[in-house]
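Ticket #4471: complex job returned nothing on first submit. Input attached below:
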Amino acid sequence: MNQRHHEADEPHSLVLRLGADAPLVLESGASLAPVQIAYQTYGTLNADRTNAILICHALTGDQHVANVHPVTGKAGWWISMVGPGKPIDTDRFFVICSNVIGGCMGSSGPASTNPETGEAFATGFPVLTISDMVRAQARLIDHLGIETLLAVVGGSMGGMQVLAWASLFPDRVFAAMPIASAAKHSAQNIAFHEVGRQAVMADPEWRRGRYQQEGARPVKGLAVARMAAHITYLSEPALQRKFGRKLQDREAPTFSFDADFQVESYLRHQGISFVERFDANSYLYLTRAMDYFDLAADNGGSLGAAFRNTRTRFCLVSFTSDWLFPTADSRQIVHALNAAGASVSFVEIESDKGHDAFLLEEPNLFATTRGFLNAAASARGIPGGAA
Amino acid sequence: MSSEALRSDYRLVSEMVRPGTRVLDVGCGDGELLAFLARHKQVDARGIEISREGVAACVAKGLAVIQGDADTDLADYPDDCFDYVILSQTIQATRNPKIVLEQMLRIGRNAIVSFPNFGHWRIRTHLMFNGRMPVTENLPDSWYNTPNIHFCTIRDFVALADELQARIVRADALDAAGKPVGVKMPWWFWNMMGEQGIFWLARQGDRT
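Support reply: We reran it on our side without changes. The output follows.
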């Protein structure tokens, strides 16, 4: 058993285990028990339990926001945003991030061992939705003894979870910050996800999902899925700026199918490093959950109805060059929140870095996040943060 | 706009706003007026601002402000969702001032509009004696690079309010020093002496 598979059952994280007496009833009607939720926390919960911020991770993220990743050995995925003195200030706030269910870093998912069979669930795991992920997180927040979160923050699929939190548990979310996200997955985005899933399933080593049992690994399929997806996270100007038509360690084209161009070499590297840390079946389940997300459809066709009478304060952020979750998607949410009379702020940040901008050094994102969270904290009577 | 005049402008606007109401400031800049109204009038303060820097400053003040454009984004708001919609020193920079005003009176029961008066004597004399588009301390841009594409005078504004069948609840003119020109003066006098006009409009038939 390699380390990644080990992480699925025995993660390097805190773990909440919910027994058979507390099944998670899923949107599909299926019921999941026992359930395991792996999570990390940073900072200290105050005596009033009012300073907790939940971070929701994106499709291929995990709970290791601001610590060294146990599999890759790399720094956490949002260390520029989360930490002492950072915009999400762990000197002031108690920060929680859990691996989504369906993930592969210690929360129940297709890579987890099914206690009934002693084998990985694989494609026997029930299909999940974003709401299912959020209901599982709510169990964790219950367990931590937190009634109302100061804020729920997340980008991309994380932003979908933020919206679902605000819609399902409005009284438990004081402030909500969906970044580079949408209230529904677009046809184009479903299409890209389908390309990724077909790449995984076309790999003979996928073995109809039973690769773990059969000692195989659909490395190539998952790498191709990642390569295709990675392009959607960038922008044409960013690719041009970074790579242009530059050749990789050579003076002239080789008249072969080697990675002549730097951009090819880069994508291959992205694909290969991804499969080291991610489970192929998890990728199928999580992309599917995003495809199914449509908050308006869940509320009788009206997005405004998803937020009716909400008292949560919202701050939405989009990026000019993000074509995966374009500004129009955020504006649609803003429109619905306005119709619902909600307190909403919205800013579109100028960036040529595409969808990935939310994970990168974006001083304007940091300033907006810091300002919004500080204002929420002072509205909730949390001391400090005057600077 | 000198800071002295700005403060008078805001002071007058805040006199018009009843405490505890819902207020939208269109073109709210860094949120100075909204923050003042939230603090001193306990209003539910919302804003629209075109510049990212302005929105960021507002968010940091705890204000709910959307990056957007008065010309396009007012249409997204439902009817009657505000008690007051404020447009300070912005109407002259909109592409379609009439539609903006119509939208303001649709989404809010009251509209408060302040604007530089192009009928002010200094502007008139500048044009008369120099024969060129006026450039003044308060309107420092040349004709070719000004964001102010729809200048009007106080009398022009009164005519537009009439055309929209809006009721003028209150009107004030401020002189160059930011002081009210004086109540009970005829329009022509205000139009000559007022450097800016501040109008409180309501829908015909609505009683506030």
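The longest helix of chain A spans residues 363-379. Closing as resolved unless it happens again.
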